Amino acid sequence: MKSLLLVFLGGGLGSICRYLVTLAFKGMKIQHFPYYQTLTVNILGSFCIGLALGWLLKNNPQNSDLQLLLITGFCGGFTTFSAFSSENLNLLKSGQFMEFALYISVSIVLGLLAVILGFSLGK
After folding, report:
1. CB–CB of 95/24 below 8 Å?
2. Most CB atoms within 10 A, among 25, 29, 53, 65?
């Protein structure tokens, strides 16, 4: 039961932060790049998960409670991979193949770099 509560708490906080990022970008239009809010959240989420993994490895490698709260809960509630997938399908269906390729490429490369940076800083 404690594990479920930790995931619930972290997920709720992550979801609130996700919503706040969306509000911060409200009204902003970046021409030719329709999903910058999701991209921003996924890159920040990748950084956060790397930071948490690195920090936990260095300071509390056996603390599954913190892992459940920070990684499973917060990062799971904050990141938006399902939205990312849906948005890519929309780009494909609308024939926006260059935007599709750019969105996937930038998301993967920056996401991986953010995890590496976060992990390095965390340990």
Report:
1. no
2. 53
